[in-house]
Each structure stands twice: as structure tokens, then as C-alpha cells.
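Priority: medium. Attachment 1 of 2:
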């Protein structure tokens, strides 16, 4: 057999570059480090949850609110088995890196959470459907708020005013619904309230080129101040104007009757169904339509977009206002889809968690939904565990959603790349 390489001059033989070798070595080292982390997690589960569960104790997970469908697991054996599987995966990863490491990491996180639930609810029953329903409901305003951030920042405008837009919309939506007796009017007014503040943010950021962080901060303070003042001056004196009520759940025929899945996904209020539609629709429009191409172009290379005839200012205005409408949806959900009234500062930082979800979701609406579900799950979990009386101190349970936010933003947010012109005012030449 002819050796092709032998017939070539020495200077033409391709050899791996030093940079490529170093990159491969770094990736191998990173993969092994991930494997050791998995092993540590598995050992911790075995020690804390496996041996921390009494022998013979069982955990029951209820899988339906309307029937007796449930599953019962031996607490100690289940936690030991989960921990052993994670340790085995970690050993394999440290010896020979597994393909699609991200998928395995997500799987291990889910197994670790499941082991924690088995340990925390041992010798009792736990409604899995109830917790997942609560997760979806809590994730909805976060996903819609993150959608507001995606629409703004894909066009090159930083939006940290999601919190203020949500709070302003929550007040207007509740007030309008109570004053008119129509939840649908409150729904529309809430969306309009978010869009109005977004128009102000666009004016300051795009037209007057005010620092976008400062502009967003001003809007947050304005919304907190004006809603607190109006609530004290109007809602306290006229309590009937703060009894808006909430949208009833709508059970979708056939789909809502599917065991377990139907109760979680297809028995919800109009806000959840609106999120079902908006998130994939905006994803399609951003990445598969001409309008989306224009929005992304002004967020990446506004000068080039302007050169080919795209109106950068108008595109950014429209995107920011649409984002404000999404934030208005998120805010009015809190008053009309959950509580039924307005409470001062009822957003409680959810706008900033939505911003974190946007970053973790890589400025993609569906990715942001995944991050919102993660945060919603953390919030729902701390609420459920507090009810059943878990041995974990209540202070730690209250911190859980924010700890999860910090952990994932610090661990994964740094790898995300925002649009190149995000936060950069455009000077039309």
C-alpha cells in the first residue's frame, strides 16, 4: 500500500497545530472535572439521602388530583440506587467522556432533585401533580418577562426595566378589571401599561441615547413609587377597586382528561395558554421570518442594517414596545391570573429573575422558558416542602429560588454571548 504522506514534501505534511492540541487537552480536562463533580454529587446523595433515610420507610407520590393514581418507593433503596447510578456515570465520564454532556448533566440534576424529594417527603405522601402545576403557574410570568427581555435585547436595547413594567401592569390591570367589572378589560389594560412604559424606555434609550441601564433603573423606581402611592391613596380608601378576581381555569376537552399530563398542561387559565402560543410563535418569527432577521440584524450590526435600508430606530422602537406588552402580560398575570388583587411590590424581584432566565436561555424564547421552569420549580418546591414540614429550616427554603438563580447565572450565564450591539446607542450617519 502506498504511503501518501511519504510522497509529500516535509513542509506540506499537515500536523495538528499546537493550539488545537491544547484545546483538545483542555476539553478532556474539563470533561474529567465534570466527571468528578458527578461522582461527588452521587456520593453526597448516597450519604445524605440514602443513609439519611430510615430503613423500611416509603415515599408515596400522588400522580393525579382527581384519582388514586400514585407510586410508592422505598426511600433508602431508591436514594442509594440513584446515587450509585450518578457515581457510575461520573466514573465513565472521567475515564472516557460521554457524548452530549449537557443532556447527561440535565439528567443528573433531575435525578438528584428526585432523590432529594424522596428523602424530604419520606414516610409521607407528596402530590407530584400539584407541585408541577404550581411550577408551571409560577414559571409563566417569568417566561413572559424573559420574552420581553428577548424582544428588547435582540434589537440591541438592554431592558432591566422588566420589573417595573410588570409591577405597573399588575396595578393597572387589577384596577381596570375591578373598576369595569371585566377581567378582559384588565387583561388588555395590563398589556397596554407595560407597552406604555416600554415606549418611554425606547424614547430615552433610542432617541435620546440615555444610558440604557440608567433608563431601566429610572422606570423601575417610577413604577414602584407610582403604584405604591396610588395603592395608598385609592385602593386603601376604596377597597372595592382592589377586588378584581381571577381568570377561571379552562380545561381543554380530551387533552385535559389525560392522566397526569392533562392535569398539568391542559387545565390552566388564559395566561398559561397565551404563553403556550406566544413563546413558540415569537421564536419562529425571530429566527424564521424577515421581520426577525431585521430585528436580529439591528441588534448585531446596526450600521450594516442601516446600509441596506432597515430603519434601525423604528425596528428598535417596535421591538421594545412589543417586549413591554409581554412584560405587561407577565405583570397582569400576577394580579388577574393568580392573586385577584394588587399588593404593593407584588413582583418581588420576578422581573430580575426573568432577566436571568433570558440570559440562561441564550436570548431565545424557548430557552428562556426552560430556565423559567427551573426557577418556577425551585419556588414551588420551597413552598410545598414548607407545607409538609420538612426538616430543612424555613429560611433556607425561602432562599431557594434566589440561590438557584445565582448558581445557574454564575455557572452558565458567563458562557452566553449577548447580541453584539446590545446596549450600544446607534448614531445614524
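Attachment 2 of 2:
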Amino acid at each position: 500500500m502506498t504511503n501518501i504522506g511519504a510522497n509529500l514534501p516535509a513542509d506540506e505534511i499537515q500536523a495538528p497545530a499546537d493550539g488545537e492540541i491544547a484545546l483538545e487537552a483542555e476539553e478532556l480536562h474539563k470533561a474529567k472535572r465534570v466527571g468528578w463533580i458527578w461522582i461527588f454529587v452521587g456520593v453526597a446523595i448516597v450519604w445524605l439521602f440514602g443513609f439519611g433515610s430510615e430503613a423500611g420507610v416509603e415515599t408515596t407520590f400522588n400522580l393525579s388530583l382527581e384519582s388514586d393514581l400514585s407510586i410508592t418507593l422505598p426511600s433508602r433503596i431508591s436514594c442509594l440506587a440513584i446515587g450509585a447510578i450518578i457515581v457510575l456515570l461520573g466514573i465513565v465520564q472521567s475515564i472516557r467522556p460521554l457524548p452530549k454532556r449537557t443532556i447527561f448533566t440535565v439528567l443528573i440534576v433531575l435525578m438528584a432533585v428526585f432523590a432529594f424529594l424522596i428523602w424530604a417527603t419520606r414516610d409521607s405522601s407528596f402530590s407530584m401533580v400539584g407541585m408541577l402545576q404550581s411550577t408551571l403557574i409560577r414559571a409563566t410570568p417569568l417566561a413572559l418577562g424573559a420574552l420581553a427581555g428577548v424582544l428588547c435585547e435582540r434589537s440591541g436595547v438592554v431592558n432591566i426595566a422588566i420589573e417595573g413594567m410588570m409591577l405597573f401592569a399588575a396595578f393597572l390591570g387589577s384596577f381596570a378589571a375591578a373598576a369595569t367589572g371585566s377581567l378582559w378589560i384588565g387583561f388588555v389594560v395590563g398589556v397596554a401599561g407595560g407597552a406604555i412604559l416600554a415606549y418611554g424606555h425606547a424614547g430615552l434609550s433610542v432617541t435620546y441615547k440615555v444610558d440604557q441601564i440608567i433608563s431601566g433603573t429610572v422606570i423601575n423606581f417610577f413604577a414602584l413609587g407610582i403604584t405604591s402611592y396610588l395603592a395608598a391613596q385609592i385602593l386603601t380608601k376604596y377597597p372595592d377597586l382592589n377586588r378584581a378576581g381571577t381568570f377561571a381555569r379552562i380545561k381543554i376537552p380530551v387533552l385535559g382528561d389525560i392522566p397526569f399530563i392533562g392535569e398539568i398542561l391542559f387545565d390552566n387559565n388564559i395566561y398559561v395558554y397565551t404563553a403556550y402560543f406566544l413563546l413558540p410563535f415569537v421564536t419562529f418569527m425571530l429566527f424564521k421570518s424577515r421581520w426577525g432577521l431585521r430585528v436580529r440584524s439591528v441588534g448585531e450590526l446596526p450600521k450594516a442594517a442601516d446600509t441596506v435600508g432597515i430603519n434601525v430606530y423604528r425596528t428598535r422602537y417596535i421591538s421594545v414596545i412589543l417586549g413591554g406588552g409581554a412584560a405587561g402580560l407577565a405583570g397582569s398575570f400576577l394580579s388577574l391570573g393568580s392573586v385577584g388583587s394588587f399588593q404593593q411590590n407584588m413582583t418581588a424581584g420576578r422581573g430580575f429573575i426573568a432577566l436571568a432566565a433570558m440570559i440562561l436561555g441564550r436570548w431565545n424564547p424557548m430557552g428562556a422558558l426552560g430556565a423559567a421552569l427551573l426557577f418556577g420549580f425551585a419556588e414551588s418546591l420551597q413552598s410545598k416542602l414548607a407545607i409538609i414540614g420538612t426538616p430543612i429550616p424555613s429560611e433556607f427554603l425561602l432562599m431557594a429560588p434566589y440561590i438557584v438563580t445565582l448558581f445557574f447565572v454564575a455557572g452558565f450565564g458567563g458562557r452566553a454571548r449577548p447580541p453584539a450591539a446590545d446596549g450600544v446607542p446607534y448614531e445614524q450617519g
